[in-house]
Fold each of these.
Amino acid sequence: MKPAPFDYLAPTSLADAVEALGSYGADAKVLAGGQSLVPVMAMRMSRFDHLIDLNRIPELDFVRHEAADVVIGAMTRESRVGSDPTIAENVPLLTDATQYIGHFQIRNRGTLGGSLAHADPAAEYPAVAMALDATMHLVGPDGSRSVSPEEFFLGPMTCCAEDEELLHSVSFPVWGPGSGFSVQEFARRAGDFATAGVAVGIRVADGVVDKAAIAFFGMASAPVRARELEIELVGQKAMDLDFQEVGNQAVAHLQPPDDIHASSSLRRQIGAQLASRALSTAVKEAT
Amino acid sequence: MSEHILHLTVNGEAQHVLVEGRKTLADMLRDDLRLTGTHLGCEHGVCGACTVLVDGAAVRSCLMFAVQAHGSQVTTIEGIADADGGLSAVQSAFRECHGLQCGFCTPGFIVSIESFLDAHPDPSDEDIREGISGNLCRCTGYQGIIKAVRLAAETRAATPQDMSAPDDAVSDARVGA
Amino acid sequence: MTAVAGRYVGQSVKRREDARLVTGHGRFVEDVAWPGTLHVAFLRSPIARGRIVNLDVSAALAVPGVHSVLTAADLNEHAREWWQNMIGKDAPMPPKRLLAEHDVRFVGEAIAMVLATSRYVAEDGVELIDVDFEAETPVLVERAGFEGVAADDANLVHPEWGSNVAQALPGPMGPGMPLDNPALEAVLASAAHVVTETFTQHRYLCVPMESQGINVRWDRHRERLEIVSATQSPHEVRSCAARLIGINDSQVHVVADDVGGGFGQKMFPATEELAVIMAAYRLGAALRWIEDRNENLIAGGHARNEDLTMTVATDESGKILGVRAHHREDIGAFPAYAVGSSASSVGMYLPGPYGFGEYFFSSEAVFTNTCGRVAYRGPWMMESVAREQMMDVTALAIGMDPLEFRRRNVVTPDQLPFTTSTGLVYETVTPQATLEQAAEMVGYDAFRAEQAEARTHGRLLGIGLSSYIEPSVGFGIMGAEQVDLRIDYDGSVVATTGSGSHGQSVETTLSQVIAETLGVDIDKVVFTQGDTAVAPFGSGTGGSRTAAVYGGAAREASVLLRNKVLAIAAEVLEASSDDLDMDLGVVAVRGNPGATISLADVAAVAYAGYTILPESIEPGLDVSFRIRAPMFMFSNATHAAVVEVDPVTGAVKVLRYLVSEDCGNMINPMVVEGQIAGGVVQGIGGVFYENFVYDADGNPLTTTFLDYLLPTAAEVPTIEYGHIVTPSPTPGGFKPIGEGGAINSPAALINAVRDALTPFGARVVSQPLGPQQIVDLIKGPASSAESI
Ligand SMILES: Cc1cc2nc3c(=O)[nH]c(=O)nc-3n(C[C@H](O)[C@H](O)[C@H](O)COP(=O)(O)OP(=O)(O)OC[C@H]3O[C@@H](n4cnc5c(N)ncnc54)[C@H](O)[C@@H]3O)c2cc1C
Ligand code: FES
Ligand code: FES
């Protein structure tokens, strides 16, 4: 289990990285934390000529509170995301999600951008980005562009970044006072990718839900929002919510995948329970 | 296929190695520096046997390329005991609590636990189980390992550690062919 | 014999192995680096069954750094003999080959071997080998069912064998086995209760954290083959290598230093290792193959994967009157030894700790186009898995609590010596005592109230018991192990054995026995194993025999040597040896504290000053003792598990797990508990997490640690222990303990799950019990997914 040969490149600036990507295009691959890419390379399931290591580009490793958003650089390690006070204060859903990612040794290398770009349907961060309507900022030789999570996540292990593009950073909107958040997941073992999971945000004003976001992971080919239910929840009295019922509704329209670990219907059953638990936790926190 | 000269510090000693870009940090440590205490149990990031400290952070050395460690401080299991061979609190606790049988997983556990206890000096049982869940052991059923973590935490609490942080500055030295 | 607790034996002496292992200075097979070694990578079959229609290695040969590429044509015809010491040459032997020739028979079968300057380059070469197949219908239980495979004469795994049935019992394979038992038929026809059930266990694997591996070089000038291997049995490797290439055992030198677990997988050299040995010999080169995890999972040998149907007849009171059992195994294409079947052991040990009355056992094993069967910690353990579930199922069927049903049938002290329905004789087992101790420790009666209370809150708690007798065999090469013991000129003690510790702490425990018996400081004992150049012939470490067989031999050798030391000391001290004692290496005359002699001085007399000794005392201080162990040695234990099942997620949490055991005198209680714990967690893994899955085309689906799930520390409870000590009649009073944890835990866990699911009337008879299987059981048979 040893990777095939490649040329290794470690640009020290974003500009150099973008230039390298521009010249190699589909023959290159960027390396972030390597926690997903290197295993795939070791199994020789991914082949390319040039590996562009982003780990020496300080410009991509940052956490900034800008206006109504917290903006996080793609190369920010998961361990930092999980412990950063600005994030904990303003985007607690990300903090909460981080504890479920693998193990601390994985989080010491794995990055926010790598996790999003890898687009594993069972991963936590993509669902958080989806729930919070984050904005993904991409850069390439032709300039930069910003996309929504819906545009970004195209399917299992596929995001919208072109061969010459890389994910630069992500803006997470700050929900402000009166909000509550929760990530709940079920995994076979500690640290495993989720069999099913959900990220939830609720904002309550005067006892009434005024914003709701429910995003599932491990339940479809990409993270998926329960939009209809969210609309229904807005305007309801937080105290009156029947969480079990809401949980069932949240998964009603999903067709989760079937695999050796769980059938589609088991995933739906687990998803309903997780959603109701997440909603009740989030509401409690919000009120 | 690129080759690189890298300069790094391993267990306090400066090292200069010529490696192919694709060579993992684990293989470089084992083959080029002959530090064979770092073990390979899966080579895909799950078992934790290859755990080393890079600039103080516990990482899977099978999931890093050697060239990425250019300019870094690396600590392997061989660098955990003090210079005159005195075992660390974690190492002694493993022996005391029968935290190992075949010993193949042990280096990865010990390196991980050193780092885990730095961050959680007084862990609960649940913290311990979660903290070592990124390392697999097939022999012990984890019973002795869990006890060892508890004992090491107590020993460390009783004997203040030298907490001097490793140099965290990744050097700006250029890496390339 | 009574229990002992000496200076060393009976104490949790800290391990001598640990100092090097906790500092990263162990020496495992992959740590050996001979100059000029070529690294091996194999091209493996991507399909389960088919013909090789094209195999072109030229592109691989062109890769810089690739030294050569070998195929069946280069190696297979040179293989002379291929059988194992432990099995003997007369056992029926399915076809074997070093590399696939003309066709492939399972996904992962090695087809070609690339030799290169590094493993990286060798894998580059493998990728460039051009190979084409004509796929054929794979023979799979997953596809055709067991009977379908057995009856299929059109598609044969091994055309040379003539049938997919590898072995059937009773039948020509089982000499002396009766073909039926009419008395049993009569019992079944007239008993008050007759209950039948089939239990299935899935395919799960040894998975030592260190995979397999070997370094080999042939020195053509000295005509010596040198091997460093990750093996449980260095002498087995030596013999297999020698007979494969047709040289003498004495021309082969095998070393196994530290070995990172084995659990049966490393008992015999793997086919790949034999191919590497042959290649090294043919090329006169130094070669090394280190199996990677993917290879280890798909081709390193599979285990379990069998079912057993039991019919139990009882009288009104729940006393078992007779048992019929039929066992079926899927042994894959190339089992690790002989036909790889465990059936004869399963049949023999099935009665376990109970009186079975009339008994009949039959079995069938089939070849399939999957990875072959290998021994895994208690290869015969289906007897416990099925029997202990059957105890619960029968109890439920006749309206009795499983504990009570066990009480009515367990062998009691007044029945000893007890002869089982299969003719085994138990002399010092205590299954009733461990059953009661386990029930007491777990608070069985109180649990029932707690369970009822929990159910009213929708919580599903369950309790499961499982009892067994752990056999260790003492026949063939496994029953006659030797310990060589000498005292060197400086008074230090040197012990050598043919054991092959791979985690069992043998260096420590045998040193304890020797230091204790001899009367020396344990630090004065240098213990060497795993090196055929110095060790007496042995069968290695496996089969739970180290304490009882090697331990017994170590004790007897120590007694011989001690007697000699005392005889020499008696001459020097002018005392009778009966009046002498030796402690911590000093011989003293009892009652005369001034009259002493150190071991070093005794050694000086033995080696140099022997002229003062009478003719009857030979010079020197070395002895050998080869033990003749009893045919069977037995220990026993009862496990109890308490679980909670989450009805929504299907997750099972093991809340409590405890083991009451009797392994006779414990050389080192810490090591005993460690052996048990490791085995129990392998059972937790097997029942709840680990599952090697093939699809209907014979493609493995669980080829990495991301899908083949080993339990982590977060999934296991704290294990509690109860010890009952009833020494065996063998030297030292030690009994087997190494495999029991893995043998007995599955049934305790499954029984606990069944108990938890009682409100649903769930028929819990198969594994794994992952979330999916659990929710299917709760929903009932209509929705339950078919098990493999
Ligand atoms: C044992 C184990 C357990 C794990 N458990 C979990 C878990 O429970 N949940 C979870 O979410 N993850 C888990 N992971 C994965 C981990 O979170 C990874 O770190 C993450 O998925 C990928 O991040 P990375 O920085 O390591 O990216 P890499 O592995 O370096 O890259 C992943 C992919 O993204 C691309 N990429 C990376 N950065 C960029 C960028 N800036 N722009 C464009 N493309 C980019 C790469 O080219 C590559 O294709 C686990 C990993 C392991 C080994
Ligand atoms: S070898 Fe690196 S995690 Fe297993
Ligand atoms: S001690 Fe053998 S794998 Fe942990």
Amino acid sequence: MQSLTTTFTRPEGLQDVVTHYCPGCTHGIIHRLVAEVLDELGVRERTLGVAPVGCSVLAYNYFNTDFLESPHGRAPALATGFKRLRPDMIVFTYQGDGDLASIGMSEIIHAANRGEKFTTIFVNNAIYGMTGGQMAPTTLAGQVATTCPMGRDTGKTGMPIRMCELLSGLVTPAYLERVAVHFPQQIIKAKKAIRRAFQYQIENKCFSLVEVLSTCPTNWGKTPAESTHWVEENLKSYFPLGVYKTPEGAK
Amino acid sequence: MAKILMKGNEAIAEAAVRAGAVNYFAYPITPQNEVGEYLARRLPEVGGVFLQAESEVAVGNMLFGAASTGKRVFTTSSSPGISLMQEAISYMAGAQLPVVLLNIMRGGPGLGGILPAQSDYFQATKGGGHGDYRLLVLAPSTIQEAVDLTMLAFHLADKYRNPVMIIGDGMIGQMMEPVEFPDSYTEPELPPKTWAATGADGRKPQVVKSLFLDPIALEKNNILLHEKYQAMKREEIRFECYKTAPKNKILLVAYGTMARICQTAIDELEGEGISVGLFRPITCFPFPEEALYAEATKSNIETVLTIEMSMGQMVEDVERVVARQRPVKFFGRTGGIVPSPEEVIQQIKQILASGQPTKVKV
Ligand SMILES: Cc1ncc(C[n+]2csc(CCOP(=O)(O)OP(=O)(O)O)c2C)c(N)n1
Ligand code: SF4
């Protein structure tokens, strides 16, 4: 008889706990990708994460690294303060779209523009998950949310904000890429991007941000399967995947 | 070390460096810009971090991140800027982070003006941001004292793992006076900062946070904070009595620049044969309750007169402490108007004549 071997294990970067994320939510996949990258780069023991306010507010219970829990939207400011004093450490912020693109817009733009040497994992699910499905700055035109029950009226609320495009307008060198995690081949690409972002940080090259299109079945009012298709058919076409900026200039 | 002539803002900046605080985050605002300008030159010399942030909202939060390393960090600002930092101050108090903040107060509310004021006393001593927390609040009245209290502030912040605020005003910031820095600076030893985030290398992950979703845990944190504030009340009360004497009928209560002006008034009145004393809180939180009560209720004291550069903020603490044992009168000017010693003298003479301070006529 052949002996059984474990081929799929929990990365050291994650704690052995059950998360509170809803079924079909891709926050969990993104956590895992970050943790795998920290393991592979061998930096877990000198990493600091900064958790946002949003569904991933408890990220500090899931990652096996030191963590700060930030006020809503201010993670890039906390990360700046920490990293400036500890340039030898690896620092990342993990933020939702309400956190980063609404209340924290000023902090992320200025951190990116100063070229702060930390990495931002920007989880864009086009809605406020934690507070119960209100409109986010990234909510699509016509998308229904609890504070736009008739669908987002862009005549009154403007068009959804594309963060990678917006930040790529800054002159300071940076690494910006938008990825998704709704299908396996996307997950593989997403991990590569996250790895590249941390690699730039390790080399002390530049600010790096990976925007990950994520799902929120609970507040989208969809099944997990429907949600992945909704990312493919709707989110992806307004938020094109790809590399938006590299410190080398070329894509 | 010999005395050197320095502007208040620069002396405070140098004092921080001497206390080993070489990490500074700030946003420009009058009347304290000299602090940042001094440190922009000075901190690179000592291997520190100087960063001009995009806003005071960011400053407060940068301090949160920076203080989490366990190193000494600080900022300086003035009233409108301090208002914007209240979010982070509340979070830092909740997460028990040591940090020092200097508020060179200017007239408010709103954009107000840029001249000296003491109208942020409530904000500094009663909370300021949301939640059950206190800052340890120090109020210097000379530049030498600003230097000494700045150095002490970092020690107290570390000792209590709590934000410490120094409240000065435009006079303290802008005035030039001879100051002396200690030749060598030593402070009582403090426990190692085992709470700092330094990387989960051979230990469990460290989390610096103010979030406690479990109500029992949150109440526990609030009780822990409360116990620290009680300890401050036992151990950190600071005040000064000036020319308090058994023949005095009036006790003045004032802090900071205003206390200094009262001292001048007291000296002048002495020449006229009128004896008045001053009680000067140096810590505004913890407020020197017992000491003030003892002074105010001495049998010779007939009236307590509180003087502030505000419409009356500390006077509420004075009233609370004196607890109707003596009449508490108030005199104040605002808008950046600093009462002159003559105005103070007039108030005192008025009380002695009629028992009432005069109304301010504008
Ligand atoms: C200052 C402040 N304002 C509002 C809130 C309430 N709040 C908590 S989470 C959240 C939105 C989070 O949405 P997002 O960043 O998109 O993350 P998600 O939950 O979707 O992952 C809001 C508005 C808060 N905690 N603090
Ligand atoms: S509410 Fe949405 S974002 Fe939050 S955990 Fe559930 S599915 Fe995920």
